[in-house]
Write a structure and sequence with these properties.
heterotrimer, A mainly alpha, B alpha/beta, C mainly beta, B: alpha/beta, six-stranded mixed sheet, four-stranded antiparallel sheet, 7 helices, 33% helix, 26% strand, C: mainly beta, Pectate Lyase C-like, 14-stranded parallel sheet, 10% helix
Chain lengths: 263, 239, 409
């Protein structure tokens, strides 16, 4: 029985995956990622420029494309969801299958576009960290897309919310942190700041990569505080767990809302 | 077979279903009629689990459908406006539903042949006319030989020929002893099909009667006229 | 006849200078006994074995040779070897376990007020201080290996420690795990060449008030606080490597009040700060490589007339940082890998001046916690806009002739 359910879910995931992977936007995204990463690695003698390009891709492009694409896709597949709902399928399975399908395709796009050049030009701790963090960030923003598309039926509003979420984490949150840092410059707030970074998945991802990319600078006074926390294996596990929570919590909220949604 | 009792549903402040009670049995062919926005589709969607009632219970084959989904194996649903993924072809949609259902029973492909859908299997859903989309919906509803058929405005977009094909199919299934639930506001279409009538207005079930009793009570020969006369008498009563 | 006399004279010397053997298989079993039997010019040859004789004092001009690496063991109670005479040679011993005391500073080998002493090919293990020259001239410390194991600064002495000495040669030693690898105070006109100083708890090299010394081709790696030099003029540092000195107050090379010095062709790799320059003047920093440091150079605003020319700055998080807006130093013809200008006339020099000081470096200097935001999109935006319209960073902090390609160093 249970096995049959999983089989059924796999079928739906397969259908969704094949639909998304045929999507031209995903293909274009993969291509653009690939062109960006290959060219930035190939044009420079040392790999640092290429790594920086991919870092910016992970912190900027991947979140934007993931959340926008997933939101639009969800709105566009409302018919499909309705069709599935009239069939003997659990709601949870439908939503999960959509999530798995979308995350998998975004991760595949990232791995094909940026992962392969990373593996070739930087097969070290930095490279692996970037690949894993980039993949998780893709999933996190797909999860946030599920949240933004479930809170409203209006497609335009939903896309607006998605863009706001992205803008907040990519730009505004850091602005807020900078403001706090200077506002409370006279207080020992370094440790509190470590906690605050947990409130943004992009910052979590960025600091994990920084600790590998700019290890010398991170050994400085405040850097050392961050390194003392994030740089230990415990810190690494905690920040990856936090990143996973950033995917799990928005998705479970959206799942709960989807379960009681009227279509 | 289906028992709806004390079901309420609000969309925001709008009460769409008010204390709805309804019992449907095997072998019946029920017409769910009423003016636009009276809650017909919401009731159907509630039975299908697509809309979750605020309270009340819906029992299908002696089991509540709350948090259940397997009962939908026994339902074929034809939506009012069939919406399908744009980029899929007819063939892919039918194939997909087959894979999802993965039932081992013999498929009922009568309508595929009757509507001559095979010729159009490669056409993408977004290129189809409303009528053809309805044909696909109808085909999917009957495909798995379900015990219950729920048809929301089945003949609305169909041409007379296809409409006739579908009617014949419905009669055929009715004779097999299945429960058939049809919503429609084109009453004349239904005359030769239905055995019972449920009339809804403003979210409430006005009456639920056998066609024969209805005609007898109103001394009419046509269902539409019978209903019209009931509505008139009601109006007279209230005024 | 004259020549004959000279030869005779030489012969008579060699006849006088005898070699005395100490060892299990020789009549003399004790080193101290052996020393007592020697006179100036004699050789004392100690054969392999374990000698626990407390404090051994050499007060004659003898050659003191170990054969088969004899061990002189201080048993953590004594200074092991004290040299109190000129022209002593100590060669081929393993000196271990000197005592630990903070006032007398007991050593593996300590030289008191002597000239022409040579200490070479020894192994010093687990001593408080390693080799200590006190008020010495023209001595050579060559090819020794020193290792200590303490964890805390207080439990450890320095590897090679020189005080109030001059004309010292320190060549090809390896120092590991001491407090300071090499420590100089009031040491002049000396040469430090081909030493490797690693994993010391405090500094790899530490000197003050030691003028006109030259440091060539040394390696200072992974020391607690890097290399620190203070209050000195006329330092020459060539071909040295400073790497992996990590920590808040760790510097590849800390220069405090250093003047008229020349720092040429060194490598600064993966340090938290490559060079930290405070209160220095008239120094020339030329043809060095700064690679993968947190901060390539930190130049404090109280430095003046320093020239920073023809260096490569590669893969540093920040190339330059400073704490004020006053700029009295010149930067020219350096290669900066972050430079984004162009070179239309193809002379290898960029046509647009380069401002190596980024806005974010200034922000971090004033509020170190800001480091948290490094490489965030917002910071990149701020940095880019500052590059276009400098408003906070001093605009005379500039390399007017940035190189388009790194120098082949």
């Amino acid at each position: 029985m249970c096995f049959k359910l999983i089989k059924k879910m796999n079928r739906i995931i397969k259908i969704i995956l094949s639909d998304i992977l045929k999507n031209k936007i995903v293909l274009a995204f993969t291509l653009i990622l690939a062109i960006l990463s290959w060219s930035s690695f190939a044009l420079e003698d040392n790999s640092s420029k290429g790594l920086l390009t991919i870092l910016n891709v992970i912190l900027f492009t991947v979140p934007l494309v993931s959340i926008l694409f997933a939101t639009i896709y969800l709105y566009n597949s409302s018919e499909f969801i309705e069709l599935l709902l009239s069939q003997p399928i659990k709601r949870v399975k439908i939503w999960m299958s959509l999530f798995i399908g979308l995350s998998t395709s975004m991760v595949i796009a990232f791995l094909l576009g940026a992962g392969i050049p990373l593996l070739i030009y930087s097969p070290n701790a930095v490279g692996f960290m970037m690949i894993s963090v980039g993949s998780i960030i893709s999933i996190v923003f797909v999860a946030l897309a599920f949240l933004s598309s479930i809170v409203t039926r209006d497609k335009a509003k939903g896309i607006g919310i998605a863009i706001m979420i992205w803008l907040f984490f990519a730009l505004l949150f850091d602005g807020l942190v900078l403001f706090l840092l200077f506002q409370f410059a006279d207080y020992p707030i370094e440790k509190a700041m470590v906690g605050i970074t947990a409130l943004s998945p992009i910052d979590l991802a960025r600091i994990q990569i920084l600790l590998h990319l700019d290890v010398s600078a991170m050994m400085g006074y405040t850097g050392a505080i961050f390194k003392d926390f994030f740089g230990t294996s415990l810190g690494l596990i905690v920040s990856f767990l936090l990143l996973c929570l950033w995917a799990i919590i928005p998705f479970s909220i959206s799942l709960k809302m989807f379960k009681s949604k009227d279509l | 077979m289906i028992e709806v009792s004390q079901v309420n549903k609000k969309f925001g402040k709008l009460e769409v279903l008010k204390n709805v009670n309804l019992t449907c049995k095997k072998g019946e062919c029920i017409a769910l009629i009423g003016p636009n926005g009276c809650g017909k589709t919401t009731l159907i969607k509630s039975i299908l689990g697509m809309v979750l009632p605020d309270n009340g219970t819906i029992i299908f084959n002696e089991k509540s459908i709350k948090n259940e989904y397997l009962y939908r194996n026994n339902i074929g649903y034809m939506p009012q406006i069939g919406r399908y993924p744009d980029t899929m072809t007819i063939g892919q949609v039918i194939e997909m539903i087959k894979t999802i259902r993965s039932s081992n029973e013999v498929l009922d492909e009568d309508l595929i042949k009757a509507f001559e859908l095979e010729k159009m299997f490669d056409k993408q859903m977004r290129t189809l006319s409303g009528g053809t989309t309805q044909k696909v919906s109808a085909t999917l509803a009957f495909l798995f030989n379900p015990d219950v058929l729920i048809l929301d405005e089945p003949t609305a977009g169909l041409d007379p020929l296809a409409s006739e094909v579908l009617k014949e199919k419905i009669i055929k299934e009715k004779e097999k002893g299945k429960l058939i639930l049809i919503t429609s506001h084109l009453l004349s279409e239904l005359d030769d099909l239905i055995t019972e009538i449920v009339f809804m207005q403003e979210g409430e079930v006005h009456f639920h009667k056998k066609v024969a009793t209805l005609l007898e009570e109103t001394n009419e020969t046509k269902i539409s006229k019978a209903i019209a006369s009931i509505l008139k008498s009601k109006k007279n009563l209230t005024t | 006849m004259k020549y004959f006399l000279i030869i005779l004279l030489l012969f008579s010397f060699s006849l006088n200078a005898t070699t005395i053997h100490v060892g299990k298989n020789y009549p003399i079993k004790s080193v101290k006994e052996g020393i007592a039997l020697t006179k100036d010019g004699d050789t004392l040859m100690v054969h392999g074995g374990w000698y626990k004789e407390g404090n051994i004092i050499i007060d004659k001009k003898i050659v003191f040779i170990g054969k088969g690496l004899p061990v002189l063991d201080g048993e953590k109670k004594h200074e092991v070897l004290s040299i109190k005479s000129d022209s002593v040679v100590v060669d081929g011993f393993k000196v271990i376990k000197s005592a630990y005391a903070t006032i007398t500073d007991p050593c593996g080998i300590k030289v008191y007020n002597a000239k022409y002493v040579i200490i070479q090919n020894n192994v010093l293990d687990d001593n408080f201080f390693g080799i200590y020259l006190q008020n010495c001239q023209k001595c050579t410390i060559k090819n020794n290996r020193l290792k200590a194991y303490g964890k805390e600064e207080q439990q450890l002495g320095n590897g090679i420690h020189c005080w109030k000495s001059n004309d010292i040669l320190i060549i090809a030693n390896r120092i590991d795990g001491h407090r300071d690898g090499i420590y100089f105070e009031f040491v002049f006109d000396s040469l430090i060449w081909r030493n490797i100083s690693t994993n010391n708890v405090r500094y790899g090299l530490h000197f003050m008030f030691s003028h006109s010394d030259t440091y060539i081709t040394n390696i200072f790696r992974n020391n607690g606080a890097g290399v620190s030099v203070m209050y000195t003029k006329g330092v020459k540092m060539f071909n040295n490597t400073f790497e992996q000195n990590w920590g808040d107050s760790a510097y590849g090379l800390l220069l405090k009040d250093i003047s008229d010095s020349y720092i040429f062709n060194n490598k600064f790799i993966s340090n938290t700060s490559g060079i930290y320059l405070e209160g220095g003047s008239r120094n020339k920093i030329e043809k060095n490589q700064f690679i993968s440091n947190g901060w390539g150079m930190k130049i404090q605003a109280n430095c003046m007339d320093n020239e920073i020319v023809n260096n490569n700055f590669l893969k540093n998080t920040f190339d330059i940082s400073t704490n004020g807006s006053l700029v009295l130093n010149t930067f020219n013809n350096n290669y900066w890998d972050k430079y984004e200008g162009y070179d239309l006339n193809r002379d290898g020099v960029g046509d647009v001046p380069y401002h190596p000081l980024s806005l974010f470096a200034v922000l971090v200097e004033s509020n170190p916690s800001t480091m948290l935001l490094y490489r965030s999109f917002m910071i990149t935006l701020l940095d880019k806009s500052e590059k276009v319209l400098p408003s906070i960073t001093p605009d005379n902090f500039v390399d007017n002739k940035p190189l388009m390609k790194p120098l082949p160093l």
